Structure formats: structure tokens, C-alpha cells
Amino acid sequence: MFTLKPDAPTPLVSQIVDGFRRLIADQSLKAGTKLPSIRAFAASHGVSVFTVVEAYDRLVAQGWLVSRANAGFFVKQRPGETAPEAAAPDLRFDASWYLKQIFENRNLPLKPGCGWLPHDWLFEDGVRRSLRQLSSEGAELGGYGLPHGHMALRVLIAEALAEHQIAVTTEQVLLTQGSSQALDLAARRLLKPGDAVLVDDPGYPNLMFMLRFLGARLIGVPRTPGGYDIAALEALMVEHKPRAFFTQPRLQSPTNSVTPIAQLYRLLQLAEAHGVALVENDIYADLDPQSRPSLASLDQLKRVIYVGSYSKTISPNIRVGYLVGGTQLVQELAQLKMVSGLTSSDITERIAFGALTEGRWRKHLKSLRDRLAEAHGRVAHRLTGLGFELFHEPKAGMYQWARHPDLNDSAELSRQAVGEGMMLGPGHLFLVEPRPTGWLRFNVAFSEDERIVRFLEQHIPTL
Fold this sequence. Notes:
alpha/beta; 13% strand
């Protein structure tokens, strides 16, 4: 079949993946051919079962193989690909791929393009202490939570927002299953099919996919290193008459740019003049070492819906987010939440409340901010040393948005990366109108491994 070289610098997993890809591409293995079982291949080639499992899993993820329950692994039909040079993993690098594959490929060893923090950067100790406290108190496991969510956590959120000059009552706080549900509820309340809606460009792929699914017509507002292109924003409001603008002024993903207060004021003026609702996604607020005004604090929720989350700082697994707005609007959104999925989880909301109140939360946030700032400095140094241009460098938040002058299509680089066990963040995923681009999103918390540097050094000049 092919020979493995244990002493070669290429990892055995990559050798197996490359070997099967060559055999499939040159038709030595035709569609429908069954591969040797994992144990049979491991025994015949003198490698561990775990090595073969990882290699087969990568081949399935890349679209070369298909796994059939109780039958094994088979070569997948790949129409139109006849040569190794033309062969490329059958991954659709679009928003639907992002929603599905980015979670299915969490097991890839290297994840510089992912959208979460390493588990040891999160507040795991706080979660464990909260769980122990709940257990000792005999928390009720039956029944449902309140439509608006756990009252004690809503009180805590209202108090925290007051520190940032956003005055709300608990009736204006709606707990959700992460920020994604909050954004979805806001979109379904504000929009109907065919409505124009403004979004950051580049921006959040999950949000764009959800808005398109609802039938909205997406209009991209260009992001600059200094926030918005205000002239373009005003022109788009005049031309398209959008119903809403979903935006992320602070530490925006993927650019990590921050909108200055003068632009926030101007945006509020334009929204008022043109009747545009504003949905402010501020999920990275806790990662910002600076105290900054928000659209919600300047507007006091007259025209702004404010969205926050604890997924980035406590744990993504507990899925606790929140939405804040006018009392009547939040009441309507609570009803919509109940219609679509009943209450959010009272247990996870209690876990979040316990983590936030056990005394070490502020210390954790400071440590996390410091750690991210240090990682930003090191990653920026490595990327610029490789010839990358950085879009913006606030030394806070999770991301670096960067491009290389010799890289025309980061999607092709990302396909190669998956084949070598690496998840990159190709730039076109984040564009309103996807097109080939050299931009990449790097998560600084996952981007310091030397193998990432070697991959970039080896592959960018060849593209």
C-alpha cells in the first residue's frame, strides 16, 4: 500500500493521511473501496491504534473517507478530482462549515483559528466550587426555571451593568443559552424576510448564517483599525434603509478593533435619524482592561439591545448569556424564548452565579486579561517576523487579524492545515460577500506553538 518512515520529520499521522490521499487521488483506491480496519492497519504497519484512529478521523473530516457504522471506513466519491495536485479536502469553508466543522474538529492538536479559550485559561476552579456548593445545598433538579432566568444572577448582572453606567432593572435582563440565543431572539423580533440588516464586515460568521436563514438581506459595514467607516455607514443607511444594525464595537471579532466614543455617538445619531435598531454584541467586555463607554450606556437602552455572555470567561459549556433592553421589548423576547425553547437552564445559571460570587472572579478576570496581553505581544512579534501585516493591535481580547503579502487565498492554506492537524481561521469566512482573501484570524491563546510557525514558514511561499 505505502511505507511509513518512523524516523522522518513528518508525523506518522500525517504520513498515513498523505499516503491514502495519494492513493485515492490517483485512483489506486476507487470510490467505495473498503480500507483496512484500524487494528489491521496498525498491526501491518507497526504503529499504534491511536495513530491510525487519528489519521482515519482526519481523512473523514477532509472528505476522503466515509465511516459506516459496524462496517468500517470506505473511500468517498469525489467527482471531478483526478490528480494529487488538484485534490483538495472536501471542506466547504463557509458559514455552515464554520458552524458544524469547527466543533467536530475540536480534537485537532493545533487550533490557532478557533473561537474559544484553552480550558486552563477559563474559570474551572470557580465552576467546580460552585458545583460543590450546589450539591451540598441539594439543588432541585426537577421542574423549569423562570422565563427571564435565575433571579439572583439577573440581580448580579444588573449590578454589574450599573458599574458600567447602564441602568437596568431585573425585568430588563433576560438570561439566554449563550449569546447566540440572545442574538437569534433579537433578530426574530426585529426582522422579517427581505429586510435589510447591517452587520460588521468582516464580522461574525454564525450571526451572518443565522440572519440569512431568517431571510434577511445582509449589508456589510466596513471595519477599519479605528472602528467603523462612518461615511460608508451613513451612505448604506440612506441607500438600503436597514431595520437593524448588529454590531460589535469592542474587541470585535475577527479584527479586534475598538470603536471610539465619537463614532458611537455618531452611530446613535444616524440610527435615530434613520429608524435603525442597534444590537450591541459585547461578549468580550470582560476581556477588556479599559473601562469604555458602550452604545447601551450612551443610549440607556432606548434604541439599543445589549448582549453579553459568560461563555468566553467562565466556560463555554455552561452556555449562559444574557440580553438587556427596554422593559416591554424584553417581555416580548421572554415570550419568544418560551415559545421556541421554554426556559433556559436554571442549573447552569446557578452554576454561573456561584462562580461569579465565590470571591475570586475579579482576580480571575485580571489574570486572564494579563495573560491575553502577554500572548498578544508574543504572537504579534512572531507574525510580523514571518512577514504578516497586523490589522490592529490593542493588546487585549482574543484575536489577531493578519495577512501576508505572499498569501492570496487563506482558504487554500486552511485546507492544507486541516490535513496536518491544524485549525486555521481563513479570512473569507468572516466576510459578508465571501471572496479569496489573504486575511487570517489568529486566536492568540492558541497561536504560540512552534509547529504553527513552521507550518506557516513552509506553506505560505508555496501558495
